[in-house]
């Protein structure tokens, strides 16, 4: 687009990057500059429209924060509260919700609040991955779907790993799958006694994500983690607390009042001190967690293509199976 057809000498065989660029340029033959420019503009326009259709949000024209379809985000008393808001679907996480949580966390990391809270609306915290996510197959087929999902999941979990402020889960009801595994990346987890914690990965032909293959054995012991992550044992809130996944359990009747009173008090603590303490506690682990996240996503990319997984999804969608 800037220089016209390729007229420079071919780079040496060991200069792999320059050679790949030269090959791509040379393959365009005598394409005129103007056409190349137009092709470039068309490509970028198509990417930006596919980002919009894939659910990525843009700020308003005046730079105000984006509106969310699957979340309610509020900020008061020094607390940014991100509420999963698909109560009729038990707050199952669809593709839009993964994108929106990522955006909401990015915004919360830069706003004036001192702590950030994730919670659910309705009777569930979240039923985990929305199993209908697997029905929206792109033109590249199931392999492309698996690849895109692995990228989405890696970015999503990466935001939790890198989140710089105290991050608290207010678990208002049962939690399933990825809604459970990511709890290992929070700084505190407060739960109603009505909640349960369930990671039915083997039942679904899946494998652990959310860095749980690393955080759960550390938090609760390898064998307790195996009971959850391999055998799908569902824990009560009290069991999850005994095993260290949950910080404290409250009676359902007084849960909201007790938790928010405590969080408002915490939010008054000096924000920089809390941020720095988190950094000191978490930074040693960050590199490891990103490596674990990458490995888990690549294993899952394969799992999603397995008969075991596909059969489990079909079973759920045809109403033959529930947890
Ligand atoms: C980018 C991709 C990343 C992928 C990351 C991978 C993550 C792994 C996981 O998270 S594994 C966990 C997956 N979750 C499940 O298997 C839960 C499936 N849901 C159920 O088993 C049940 O719905 C229930 C036990 C959570 C609740 O049962 P209950 O009888 O109380 O309620 P309903 O079944 O009637 O649910 C109400 C409506 O909500 C829909 N729904 C609930 N959960 C999900 C879900 N996870 N995915 C899709 N849809 C869900 C349910 O179908 C009902 O819809 P309807 O009213 O239209 O019938």
TrEMBL record:
Catalytic activity line of the entry: (3E)-nonenoyl-CoA = (2E)-nonenoyl-CoA; a (3E)-enoyl-CoA = a 4-saturated (2E)-enoyl-CoA; a (3Z)-enoyl-CoA = a 4-saturated (2E)-enoyl-CoA
InterPro entries xrefs: Acyl-CoA-binding_protein (IPR000582), Acyl-CoA-binding_sf (IPR035984), ClpP/crotonase-like_dom_sf (IPR029045), ECH/Chromodomain_protein (IPR051053), Enoyl-CoA_hydra/iso (IPR001753), Enoyl-CoA_hydra_C (IPR014748), FERM/acyl-CoA-bd_prot_sf (IPR014352)
Protein keywords: Isomerase, Peroxisome
Assigned GO CC terms: mitochondrion; peroxisome
One GO molecular-function entry: fatty-acyl-CoA binding
Signal peptide: none
Keyword Transcription listed: no
Positions of the ACB domain: 1-53
Designated gene of the protein: ECI2
EC number(s) reported in the record: 5.3.3.8
Broad class of the protein's primary localization: other
Keyword Repeat: no
Top-level taxon of the source organism: Eukaryota
Protein name: Delta(3)-Delta(2)-enoyl-CoA isomerase
Subcellular location as annotated: Peroxisome
């Amino acid at each position: 687009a800037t220089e016209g057809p390729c007229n420079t000498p071919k780079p040496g065989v060991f200069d792999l990057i320059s050679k790949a660029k030269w090959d791509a340029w040379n393959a365009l033959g005598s394409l005129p500059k103007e056409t190349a420019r137009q092709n470039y503009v068309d490509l970028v326009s198509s990417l930006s429209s596919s980002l919009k259709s894939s659910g990525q949000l843009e700020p308003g024209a005046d730079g105000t924060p984006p509106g969310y379809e699957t979340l309610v985000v509020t900020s008061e008393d020094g607390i940014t509260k991100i509420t999963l808001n698909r109560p009729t679907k038990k707050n199952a996480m669809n593709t839009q919700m993964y994108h929106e949580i990522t955006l909401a966390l990015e915004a919360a990391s830069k706003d004036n609040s001192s702590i950030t809270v994730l919670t659910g609306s309705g009777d569930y915290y979240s039923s985990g991955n929305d199993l209908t996510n697997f029905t929206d197959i792109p033109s590249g087929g199931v392999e492309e779907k698996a690849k895109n999902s692995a990228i989405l999941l890696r970015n999503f979990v990466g935001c939790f790993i890198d989140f710089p402020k105290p991050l608290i889960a207010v678990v208002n009801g049962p939690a399933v799958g990825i809604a459970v595994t990511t709890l290992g990346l929070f700084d505190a987890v407060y739960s109603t006694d009505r909640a349960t914690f369930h990671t039915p990965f083997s039942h679904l032909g899946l494998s652990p994500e959310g860095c749980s293959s690393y955080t759960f054995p550390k938090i609760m012991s390898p064998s307790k983690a195996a009971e959850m992550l391999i055998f799908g044992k569902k824990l009560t809130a009290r069991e999850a607390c005994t095993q260290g996944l949950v910080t404290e359990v409250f009676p359902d009747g007084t849960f909201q009042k007790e938790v928010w009173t405590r969080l408002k008090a915490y939010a008054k603590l000096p924000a920089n001190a809390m941020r720095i303490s988190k950094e000191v506690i978490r930074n040693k682990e960050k590199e490891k967690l990103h490596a674990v996240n990458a490995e888990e996503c690549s294993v899952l990319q394969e799992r999603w293509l397995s008969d075991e997984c596909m059969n489990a999804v079909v079973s759920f969608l045809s109403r033959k199976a529930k947890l």
